[in-house]
Design brief:
Number of helices: 10
Helix content: 25-40%
CATH architecture: 3-Layer(aba) Sandwich
Strand order of the largest sheet: 3-2-1-4-5-9-8
Radius of gyration: 18 Å
Structural class: alpha/beta
Order of helices and strands: HHHHEHEHEHEHEEEHEHE
CATH class: Alpha Beta
CATH topology: Rossmann fold
Strand content: 15-25%
CATH superfamily: Vaccinia Virus protein VP39
Number of strands: 9
Length: 281
């Protein structure tokens, strides 16, 4: 019996267009960068459903390394978090087509993926129903009040949360980023941890080659931070636990170049901030 035809993915425009890239890179990591392959079966299955059009999306080496490096870091830090808090909830804010729950499922915890309605609709078309303890909800994180609209645990809640924001903030306006962190600082339970990637302000206004749409137009970055401490300054309850740089993936050469340019950049060109929500600051 012949297989049903693959679903044709909608031609998303603007920032939403970029959500295909992490899925493509993770699904094809064994070919693109085998030593950093996350073995993302979810992405592989999704890619098989999208048809040949997705293979026309451009991928440059730097974007491949950035995506696989941050995937590896978020996965490592997430596993450590759930070793300490096996029963609590993880939330991917601006999840796109990613599924970290496949790696971070303890059998006891819960997971929530959040993104725009059109992205959630696309996920529904390309993937089966979420497994037990995994929920997908639609909301616009650029509009303040999303914490309460999603019904997330409040500041006095007795269990911390793991919050992830990857590939999201650099496409938001500075005022939207400020409101985003204020929302988390105001509502997140004590002890919650936040992982968010960021680009250097030097990258603002410049698109990645991989962000060029099939129409030829490019999506430019609109926000950046010099370092994780700058991000922690968005709210009094945010504490920087650690900062990671993609230069780690390039070995000693990458570290040397970052040290050389740090007086000009003030931090990594692309990094991951690991923050904690604390009432003791």
């Amino acid at each position: 019996m012949p297989s049903p035809p693959a679903a044709r993915p909608p031609q998303l425009q603007g920032v939403e267009h970029t959500l295909y890239l992490p899925m493509i890179v993770r699904a094809q990591a064994a070919l693109l960068c085998p030593w950093m392959d996350p073995h993302d079966q979810y992405a592989r299955n999704m890619l098989a459903q999208t048809g040949p059009i997705v293979f026309a999306y451009p991928t440059d080496p730097a974007t491949v390394i950035n995506i696989l490096w941050r995937t590896q870091k978020i996965r490592q830090i997430g596993l450590d978090f759930f070793e300490r808090f096996a029963h609590v909830q993880g939330i991917n804010l601006g999840a796109g087509l990613a599924n970290y729950f496949q790696w971070l499922d303890t059998g006891l915890n819960h997971w929530l993926d959040v993104d725009l309605p059109e992205v959630v609709m696309l996920r529904t078309q390309l993937t089966p129903e979420p497994v037990a303890r995994h929920e997908v909800l639609a909301d616009d994180l650029r509009i303040p009040g999303w914490w309460e609209r999603l019904g997330l645990p409040q500041q006095g809640h007795h269990h911390p949360l793991l919050l992830i924001a990857e590939g999201l903030l650099m496409y938001m306006r500075p005022t939207e980023v400020k409101a985003f962190f204020e929302e988390i600082g105001r509502h997140a339970p004590e002890g919650s941890e936040l992982l968010c990637d960021f680009i250097s302000p030097l990258g603002i206004g410049h698109p990645s080659p991989a962000n060029r749409q099939l129409s030829g137009e490019a999506v430019a970055f609109t926000w950046g931070a010099h370092n994780g401490q700058e991000i922690a300054g968005f709210h009094a309850r945010l504490e920087l636990l650690d900062q990671h740089s993609v230069c780690e993936a390039w070995g000693w050469c990458g570290s040397w170049l970052e040290m050389l340019y740090s007086p000009m950049t003030g931090g990594p060109m692309y990094g991951l901030a690991h923050l904690k929500i604390s009432d003791d600051l």
